[in-house]
Amino acid sequence: MSDRSTSEFQCVLCSITINTTDDGLLDTLLEKSLSAYSFIDHLLTHFVSVNFLGGECESLTYDKSIDEQALLALCCEGERPFKYAKALGLFWFAKRLSARMSEVSRTMVFPYLVLLLKCIYLHQYLLGQERSSQLDTEFVEVLDKCNCEEELSVNATVPHDEETAYYLIASYLSVFYYRYDAAEVLANRCSAHLQIVVNFTGKVLFFGFDHRFTGALGKRTRFQQTDVANLLIRIDRSHELSSELASEAGALPKLVLLDDDTLLNTVAFSDPDLRKSPILSVQEQCFILLLCELHRLAHPKDDLTNEQRLAYINTVLRQAYPEIDKDKPVEERPYPIISWPVITEALFRRSLLEHTSVRRTERALNQLEELSNQVDMNEPTAEKRSPEHFFFTRMPSSWSIQIEQARLLMQLGCYKSALDVFLRWNQWSEVIECYTQLGKRQLAEEAIRAQLDAGDQSAELYCALGDVTKNREYYWKAWEVSGERSARAMRSLAVVYMYVDKDYQKAIECFDKSLQINNLQISLWFTFGCCCLQASEYAKAETAFRRCVTLDPELSVSTVVHFRSLHHRISKLGTIAQAQLCSAEETIDLSLVYNLYYLAIYPLFRDIALKLLKEACKYSYDNWRIWENISLISADLGCFTDTIQACHRIVDLREKYNDDQILGVLSKAVLEDVPDAQDKPASLLRSKAVQNLQHAHRCRVQPTDIPWEQQPERRTAVVNGLLFLTDTLVNVDQLLAKTDAVSTLELIGDSPQEKTDLQLAGQKAFIRSTMSTLRITIQSVMGHLKLNRPNMFVCRFLHPLSQSPKFKQAINRYISLPNTMRLWECPLRRYHHSSDCFQPPFDLSLLDDPKFVEQTRANLKARESTLDLDFTLDLYRRYQSGETELHADLIRFIRQLPNSTHPLTPIGSPSKTKQIYLHGSKRTGKLVISPMFVFVEIVVYHGATIVSTQIQPIFPSCFPRKLVKSVDWQMKDAATLCSSEPHKLLVDPSDHVCPVNEHLRLADTTVGAGPRTYYFGGPLAQLELALIQFTLDKLIQTGCALVSVPDILPEPIIEACGFPTRGTRSQVYHLCDPHNSEMTYCLSGTAEMGLAAFCAGRTFDCGPTDEDCLPSTAVCFCAVSRCFRQEAPHQEPPLYRVHQFTKVEMFGLTAPDVLATDALFDKLLRTQISLFADLGLHFRVLEMPSSELGNSAHRKIDIEAWMPGSKMFGEISSTSNCLDYQSKRLNIQWAMPSGEKRFAHTLNGTGCAIPRMIKALIETHQNEVSSCKGKKRLSADN
């Protein structure tokens, strides 16, 4: 645009006021001979530049009060546009002018409609994800005017790019407003406009090139040796777009590379030709991104769909960041055709897809940060950032990028960092969530009130205040402030009336008001339908669900979850005629099937309902809820074959599914030989009924938080199920006689007698195998009852079964048992299910005790725990009210309750740490070098012989004989020692000196073993063994028993020790057993876990009283093991925190007496202090505050050693008192002198963590030649 036009536009803007009308502004433009189209385009370009593109752009001067007026004028359904958007007043005038010109223009209708469509797109973007029915209506009106093909053909002067922008924007808006059919039509029109032949089922042809999903061999990781298939969009073009190639390199956003030690930045395809893609035009790249969006709609939300969407996105990114062709000179390489908005959108979409990958999360965060930063950069300028291509894409705004980055941080648990962004952009829902997670919900209220006090009296703020305070008066205030136009306020009130007050009639009134204002609230339609079900307003419920699936067919699956309860309710109301059923026999789509099923479940129309559900299965074959409803309806109708098929399908989809009601109907039909809907005897289905009963039994005995044998209701259900199964089998003679008769009638005159004998033999084989299975099943049940109920005669549970003459006859006929052996005396094999065992005994009535609740709340606050006690109490109240299915969830939360806190433990953050002892003093870098030999002696054990060995290579003993002086030098950390050069003082080549760097490997282990690993070689490896033996000697002398422990433990063991195995706080590595999907194993994080597992299920006692009273009330163990930890922050010094290391651990048990426990705790602490003092370390002993305690710890004391090279105190040991927290979960008991068994108290402490100990030793005893000196013999006799 010329400078003259720009200056004239500026003059027009200066003359605009709040009272300027559309016609008045058009008259002003006419007087100055300015094009209205160019003026509107100029305003939109400026608005896009300052809010989306960034970079330096010209500033437009106008009355800023227009922005405030625009903020009010652009409100839709009570929802304000984003108030931090810049130049909002200019956008307001641009939309008004484009709407007016599309009405009055006679020759440029389509161009102005395209401008209006752009304004609708931006207007909706400013409103956020809340779909506006007002804008949807405006959008439909524009489509109706533009869909006339004659209009497009007459206006042949329409620029090609403008027509492309129309199709792309209209497609995206159609998807956004749930108009999927229109989106597909528009996409087809766009492909025709771009001369692209599209087949959405698998192939796309672009200007003579072919595009399709395919697989290609390549490598994804750095360590991969063989090529594997990788998803790829392959493009084969018959000709290049040479006429459209860029003449110079365009501006691009910064691409963040994947800095991962395992994954490559991109797939390295083995075929070099696959790494090159034909050059695509900007329009083609945008159309690929549109195909990516349509692909998302046409496929399920799963990992495969995400990979396919990434293939689309990477195809576009390879256009902007191609691999350099090294065979061509730099000047001969063509510049790619690129566009700043296209690449920005592609990078943004890639980041949103990659955040679910652990290894790509960091890149996703960094890429979003780069995209956010580029908006504030002046270079490149806005003009060079391709503003003309903005409406080809869905390029995100600056605030959207930051908000998505904050949401990703929130998912990672970084609530404080995310909170800053949400506060900056006034995202109040997220602000409330962050403050809630941080335990500072009251601060959210203060922030909202401060905003209100500042004069921002908006309905959104009052609704947010109502959310945080749970005060419905603020919703009414929001309704009043909005002029009774806030759909959000009525929506919130409806939810309060529905879930809090249970006043469904008032909730329905509020739902109606909200949906009348905005009928595109799809989730609200669904909730409205549920509310109508509760209020027995079934006609309204049907309308709501029908509207829900009409808007989004994907949600039709979720509506099925309510149909079962709907069936049970409506079946009691009698029959009612429904006119809509007349179309049930026609071809029905999925959404109509679900709604017609709702109508048809009245008693007289159940046969139609069954047909509808069968039709629904064609569209959602893997939906277990549909199959469940088929089983219900078919059982009512007597279609037992359909019932059995549905049950089998549900079993395939849900292994633990069990419905006693349906199985009871099947079994009763088989036993009583009830004819089915086709008048066939149900006894013919006996074998299938038995299979369902057997599966039902397996479901009843599946492992849960509380074993079935400890729950009276489940115990009774298991026994009754076995009795039911037995009744189905015991009538053997009648079964065989009827089968024989039926077979004979069917085969007389047609088949030989051998076929009848074969069928009879098959029936006998089935009965024999089933009886054998039943016998084993009863043995297993009896064994579980005996093991878990040892003080009661468990046989009485199955007494009716054992006394059944028919069952005994069947057993004797088909199963050969010794005559003297009763059924329940057969050899029993006990199978251990770890997930059933380690549950803490907890009295649920404590949750009714206000004192216990307040103590627990204070303890959680002191420990800065994220556990929501209010949610747990709410679960308990619901469980008491009859929702027994919540018991497992309730127990899961109770298991996360932390231990009590010791009175000596400081309350608060890490700053409250209290030092209780300091040993030694810090060593400086001043060293006196003498001509003396300096050795360290390492004790090496060979059998029972102790050999003292002097290790000269690691500890340099030879210095120049005549050099005796004081040297000042800088002490180094372990990482520097391992990479330092030998000192010049070592001039004698005959000296056999091996500095630390020769045997300590930290920097070059990534390729071989991954990051945060280490290698000890030669003398350092011997030093490791010596430290282990030195520590074990010390511990054994104090009375600890040495135990060898495993490194792989079941997950419940680790959970029982108080270490979380799931979630963001977990540091545990998981190992999955492919042969046992019910059991998950983990790598042990410390020998404490193995020692605790060693004591699990055992009972200890005081033993004979010694002269000293302490040993008689305590048992101590020690073990050495490898420890595996996931957490290893990059900011911490190398060798200080690694993924796996060796450690000597102490573990103690005492009688459940506080004095005995404190005495053992002091003993363990004194042992640690003595051990570290013998090694010549400077260390401090710290009483750790409550926020540093794990769930299992009652009290914790850490020992930190001074590490001179790193200039820090580093933790080398920790001692914890766990009281009975672990013993309750592991059933570790202590036999009291009175004979009573109580849960023991457990304690643990670190004997020697090898890497940190070696780090402390070599940094403490280092010298100026990057080697170490030692003075003491590593022996426990010191």
TrEMBL record:
UniProt protein name: serine--tRNA ligase
Coiled coil: none
Single GO MF annotation: serine-tRNA ligase activity
The UniProt record lists the keyword Transmembrane helix: no
Keywords: Aminoacyl-tRNA synthetase, ATP-binding, Ligase, Nucleotide-binding, Repeat, TPR repeat
Residue ranges of the TM segments: none
Start-end of each TPR repeat: 522-555
Its EC number(s): 6.1.1.11
GO BP field: seryl-tRNA aminoacylation
Domain Aminoacyl-transfer RNA synthetases class-II family profile: start-end pairs: 1121-1278
Family named by the database record: Belongs to the TTC27 family. Belongs to the class-II aminoacyl-tRNA synthetase family. Type-1 seryl-tRNA synthetase subfamily.
